[in-house]
Amino acid sequence: MEGVKRFEELQIWQKSRAFSKEIHSIFKTKKQLEERALSNQIIRSSSSIMDNIAEGFERGGNKEFLQYLWISKASAGESRSQLYRALDFGMIQENEFLQLKSKAELLSVGIYALIVQIKKSEHKGQKFR
Fold this sequence. Notes:
By secondary structure, this protein is an all-alpha fold. It contains 4 helices and no strands. It has helices spanning about 10-25, 35-60, 60-90, 95-120. α1 packs antiparallel against α4 (about 95-120). The relative contact order is 0.18.
């Protein structure tokens, strides 16, 4: 973590970006009012995963970064929950649901692994150099 200079270098940010892109491509075409509302919600929550990783990193301190990583992890859970609703409402097929849910779960695991790594580190963040 100490050698990372930009959030774009973080593998977990790259994966969350790909997830957000995939969610957007699937849900952007929904037209009915009920589907549009849930589609907008899941697009926002999936985008929030990558955005909070970036914002926390840019704050320059590990304490703040950890706070934003927890928010990012929560957004991954929110996206997962919304995927269940999308499945239940017939907006996505079961195989699509399982694939997206798995990706959201892997993001949660990856974010948590980064949290653990930062907590174990003696490095306090870029602004403390």
